[in-house]
Design a protein that fits this description.
Chain lengths: 271, 271
């Protein structure tokens, strides 16, 4: 009943407790390891920057390989055959701005960065003293726990450091149903937590979610593609405030809007 | 950045739009059909009320049958072999108060009701004009979309009409990971939406989620069992305000607390 209390001292204290031994889930998605993998993919043995994913067709060819049997971890942020035309179009739009060609014909980073995404970045996380070895070994990131392509969360995130913006293209599969024929409010909240948390981590380093305040305006039809757009509202000490809007692909219809408060944690909290 | 706007006129208008053609997901969980099924299970051909689920052992026997091949829909709110001792203990505690014995030795309803739960109650929902027949036929409730018992959301809800309370016993499986070894904030939000929405529906009839405001206080270890306790804050016209606390099983530790605002929709909205 008191959304106004969300930024109170009590909450800060609670979130400090929460930070012990943990980092915000999204910290992993843009962790050093993930970025290294991403960069490695783009640099040839000769050291020049290549664009292996610049053609969507070549990406499709890569992505439809039977990834569960591959020795390489699957990067879920790359296109696969389940992606519809809206998802592909938006992916191409932002991906084309990840690298630009200089006057000398060389490639260099653009204003956007695509963030790779795995089903578990911290393979050997201990996760506190509570967990059995079985749970640890089988644990998977909530948004990447379904193997069937297109059935659940298909999404890719891009960050723009210059403008302190983050966008996520999200295609909602048939296993995310809430109201008949539409996406579950919890699945929308999950994507909001994921994207705002990623953005906060990108801006402030490792963080924990302290508060999410979500207004549901218009339902999202199952199977459709939406755009999540995040921006930084402000930073105050350990607090990072992020806003998020969920719209249809051309931004003309607002489905959901939310704010997130994230608390920075130090590396000491992770041990 | 403006959680205070959550109950504004704009939101109400948005939620009215949202209501078109839809009911809150939880409306289905306590729909007439589901309750009828529940009641049918309890009445023998001779018409007397039985307690087929009063012994947890007999329930286990039923629940471990290979349900995907059964012609009967699986009621996910019944115990299965993945439930740990905390989950079983709390289930027994509330289930034992669902029916009581009179002085004459007859059974009658107690103060609590267990709510059955299926992976899709509205089998033939049209879900608007957007959906392809394939998506419609494959759609599954988000919280019940994983077949492997114990891997994701294991939960059972009980409502107490007398006290206008609702509790949910929730065991978080290994596929719900967010921060390493802990439950994803989106999975917690999903359960909060599910339980507060169910409670609002129980109190006010079909509703849609308009706002969720969630404060994350202390992380939930993966694999553990928690209790979600909901209470009615107030009703104002079409608005139902519900509070929710997520605690450990004995209530001594607060993990998350939230408020939910739900808007009533009429049956006309469902057509």
């Amino acid at each position: 009943m008191t959304p106004h209390e969300s930024y109170s001292t009590g909450e800060t204290r609670g979130a400090q407790q929460m930070a012990r031994g943990l980092c915000q889930v999204m910290g992993r998605e843009i962790s050093k390891g993930s970025f290294n993998t991403n960069i490695r993919q783009k640099i040839t043995p000769s050291g020049t920057l290549q664009l292996p994913w610049s053609s969507i067709n070549s990406v499709r060819t890569m992505a439809v390989l039977p990834w569960p049997f591959s020795s390489q971890p699957r990067d879920f942020s790359l296109p696969n055959s389940s992606w519809g035309s809206d998802m592909r179009h938006l992916y191409e739009h932002y991906n084309s701005q990840c690298e630009v060609e200089t006057e000398e014909g060389e490639k260099k980073w653009g204003v956007w960065r695509r963030l790779p995404s795995y089903n578990r970045s911290l393979k050997y996380a201990t996760g506190g003293v509570y967990l059995s070895k079985i749970i640890q070994s089988k644990a998977r990131l909530f948004t990447r726990n379904i193997r069937e392509q297109g059935a659940a969360f298909e999404y890719v995130m891009f960050v723009n450091k210059q403008e302190q913006k983050c966008v996520c293209v999200f295609q909602a599969g048939h296993l995310l149903e809430g109201p008949p024929g539409h996406v579950h409010g919890g699945a929308i909240a999950t994507m909001i937590d994921t994207v705002t948390g990623t953005h906060a981590t990108y801006l402030s380093g490792p963080v924990m979610t302290a508060n999410l305040n979500i207004n549901y305006r218009s339902p999202i039809p199952l199977g459709s593609t939406v755009l999540l757009t995040c921006s930084l509202d402000k930073k105050e000490g350990r607090k990072t405030f992020v806003s998020c809007q969920v719209t249809n692909t051309d931004g003309s219809k607002l489905h959901t809007e939310a704010t997130g408060l994230f608390l920075s944690i130090t590396m000491g909290h992770l041990l």
